[in-house]
Amino acid sequence: MQTGSSDIDAIRQVVNQVLEVHAREEGGQRSQARAEILIHSMQVFAQRGLQRTTVQHLLDASDVSRRTFYKYFRNKMDVLESIYRIFIDNMLLHFHKEMKQAASARDIIRNTSKVYFDYHVSMGPIIKLMMEEARSSSSALAPHRERAQGIAAEVLTTEINRITNRNFDPLVFRTVLWILENYSLYIFEDGGFSQERLDQCQRTLVGIAESLVLGEPSPGMLESVSPA
């Protein structure tokens, strides 16, 4: 993933926003040095992968001393865990915003799925790396994945139940989230991004969710689309 100045600025905005929230919740202050390590480490992990990344690579990318690095992080895995937490918390913020604005169950399904896919695509290959790592029960990322899925499923259940007056089990929406997670890996399969796969996954996911919640999908949502 080649990251330009505009991409770095966008990443910096997300990281700083989430770290400000964390600082308020924990009663501390946000460190800009810590933020810069996280921001520049994303590109390193995306390009090199977890196994081929060393602390020295992260130091070089963020232009900080080893002493400064170890003031905030124990090792490279600690950095990746912090990046993943930021990703999760920002995603949950977007989910809450979309569900508050939605006027119907169909709005919730379409808007939250669009936010999910758009965010994953904007983050690029590091998403695939983090999601594959988080699926391992022994990984430090796994508890954050579990927490995020639990929160998202509960919020979806509450909002869908409120709008439809139907009492869905939260496991229904956990299942939809598991599908989303697998689709996120699928669109980056074979080491690259596929717009065709993304369009197919968005259409299919919305069709499945509408079938579950509304009884039937919008016309064409579950049908195969032949290339022009």
Automatic annotation (TrEMBL):
Domain HTH tetR-type: 31-91
InterPro entries: DNA-bd_HTH_TetR-type_CS, Homeodomain-like_sf, HTH-type_Tx_Regulator, HTH_TetR
Transmembrane intervals: none
Keyword DNA-binding: yes
Keywords attached to this entry: DNA-binding
Coiled coil: none
SUPFAM superfamilies: Homeodomain-like (SSF46689)
GO molecular-function terms, A-Z: DNA binding
DNA-binding region: 54-73
Pfam families registered for this protein in UniProt: TetR_N
PANTHER family with a match to the protein in the record: ACREF/ENVCD OPERON REPRESSOR-RELATED (PTHR43479), ACREF_ENVCD OPERON REPRESSOR-RELATED (PTHR43479:SF11)
Official protein name in the record: TetR family transcriptional regulator
Species for this entry: Alcanivorax hongdengensis A-11-3
